Each structure stands twice: as C-alpha cells, then as structure tokens.
Amino acid sequence: xxxxxxxxxxxxxxxxxxxxxxxxxxxxSEITHRSELTQKxxxxxxxxxxxxxxxxxxxEDHLEVRFSxxxxxxxxxxxxxxxxxxxxxxxxxxxxxELDILDQPGVKQIEDRKIKITAPKDFxxxxxxxxxxxxxxxxxxxxxxxxxxxxxxxxxxxxxxWFEGSELKPESISxxxxxFYERGKSVLFSDTNFMMGEIGTAEQRLLFxxxxxxTSTMLVTVQIKPDTDIDTLSNYWGQGPRAKDIQPLLxxxxxxxxxxxxxxxxxxxxxxxxxxxxxxxTDDPGSKTYKxxxxxxxxxxxxxxDPRYEDISEIITEITERYHPISGAPKFGDLILFVADKNDVxxxxxxxxxxxxxxxxxxxxxxxxxxxxxxxVIANYPSDIPLDIQRYRRKTTANP
Length: 400
Fold this sequence. Notes:
By secondary structure, the chain is an alpha+beta fold. It has helices at residues 19-24, 82-91, 96-102, 121-126, 129-139, 146-149, 170-177, 192-198, 202-212, 230-238, 243-254, 270-275, 293-298, 312-322, 374-380; strands at 27-28, 30-40, 48-57, 72-78, 108-111, 114-120, 152-155, 181-183, 186-189, 215-224, 260-263, 278-279, 323-326, 335-340, 344-353, 356-360, 369-373, 388-394. A hairpin with an 8-residue loop joins β16 (356-360) and β17. α10 packs antiparallel against α11. The longest helix has 12 residues, at 243-254.
C-alpha cells in the first residue's frame, strides 16, 4: 500500500505495508495545489520544522454526483414555536417582501414541536449573507438539516485558496461565492444541491464537488544537520520503546555531514503512518459510521486499531481511566479535546509538534486523515460559543 502519493523531492520515498494498513484499506488522495512558499516552523524538542501547505481532494468514488433538481428546499426547526421563528426572521433582518414569501400558503407547516419551512428556490438564491448566516446557523443545530449541520468549510483567512486552480467556470465560482456565509473563523457553503441543479454538465458537477471537498493540509519535514541533537529528537519522537527504532535512522542521516530534510511521517506510529493523507475506503462498513476523530485519536499509538473505540461509552471510559489532564507544554501524542457547552466533546485530535495536530475532521468518507495547524482545526469547528480546548496525556502506567 502506498502510504502517500507525493513527497517533496528532497524527501525519502518508500512504501510500507503493515497489518493495520491492510485492515483500513485507505483510498488514495489527490493533490491539487502546492504552495511554492515553504515556511519554517518554531524550533523545539521536535527539531527544526519546515511546512509546505497543500490542498488535497477525495477520489471520485467518494463523491455522490446524483442529485434531485428541486424548486424548493426543506428546513426543519425542532422544538420551535411561531414566536421563536418570528424572532429568528427578525434577527436575520428579512425584508417585508421576503417575509411575504415565507407567509405564502404551503411554505410553513406547524407540526407537533416542529416547524417545517418549504423555502422556494428563488428565496434561497437571493438571501443576503446576513440572513443566510443567521438562518443556517439556527438550522445547523438540528441533524435533520444535513446541508447546514455538515456544511463544506474552509478557513476564512485563506478563502481565496479554496478555488485556486480548480478549473471551475468563473460564473460557477461567482454563484458559489454569493452563497457563502461565515461562522466563527470559517467560511461555509451549504447549498450544494441548489448548485448541482444550476451546473450544466456532469463533468463540471464532479469538479464542483471535488473542489468543495478540498482539504488544506501540510507536508512537514525535520531538518537534520551535523550539529543536530539526535538524543533530544529521539526522546521527543520516540516516546518510550519507539526511540530504538527512530534513533538509528537519525544517526544515519547525520552521518551524511550535510543538512537533510526528512518527512515526519517516518516518525509516526504505524497506525497513523498508514492513514496519513488517505481517505476511508467507501466499501468499509465503518467508513460512514465510526471511523471518526475519537477512533482516530485513541488508536494513534496502536499497531492494530482497537474496535472498542467505535463505542462512545468506551471512548469516555478510555479517556477517564487512561488519560489525565495537563496544563504544561504539550508533547507528541497528547490528546486534544474540543469541548462545547455542557461538556460535550465535539472533536478530538492528537498533538504532533509546534502547532501541528493529526486529525480526521468528521466521519464522512470524503474527509481524510491529515496534519493541520491547530488554528485550522479550530476554524473547521465553528461555534456560537468559544470552545474549551483541553489537553490530556496518557498515564505513565498505560500501555499503548
């Protein structure tokens, strides 16, 4: 199995097979854009890091191109009454003409503890950004509204990168951009089915989906120089018994008597190494259900993935019994939890080095296992309230 399909020319290129990789059968990702700008990271016990940001797209068989061409779209507001709905319309600053459209017969249906809005296509098309942000944020709280609860998203500070080099027609990009909305540090897009009906050819529809599903990640290398402290690097990346495997490699590189860049994928445990820059296989039953961020984070040091982490109760037990909270400097392999209101853990990832984490952002097969900056991961989980970012470390008595 090819671990990942690209590397910088200064890196070593090799393939590796192991039992966990065979079980997970990840699908190969596709690189679409490589920034020519290489940035240096902060130095630390992890060494001297260099980052190259790239965008990857899922394989075509991970995307659902079929769609239904509708003249309306369904919005579900659970546990809403008419007073709450009217307050939401007021917050969205809808015009009197827009309110008249929503008051037309057949648009609003009130059921037991639920209001269903059949929003006309032209209304959805012409909503301004403020209205779309307010209404879609409210809809995102209910899983029945999948387009809003699981939108496509990108870091708002780099929104121009989203469509760079995509070959989408300019008019399509303009139409998509007009339906953007923002929440937290993310720019979001939820009107996928609307745009699928507007794009004329199957080829452009596939290109549209691949572009929306792009994920920003990075290639990260460690610079090994003649004066590099190999023992410090081995202790940081080795984490116990793995140091004996990493140190010989570092020593061999240092003997070259010149600076050498090596991708940090070589320092990751087998499980993470086998998945990095790949997507879940669409024929794997778990790819749509349990291969989420928690399954990924808790299996990080495993040789063979533990199926117990498919169960949320087992995840809670694992963290409670085998991890303890930390407040000092993070270390390789620490668990990072994104905690929302009422102690709801909405995401977890694994600290790697500097500001880099190993993460899978959701259960969808179109989301890969990647390296991201913590800032980008936070932007990927926009919230109305600030998230509490908590760090945990495995207890010293716990075995991987």
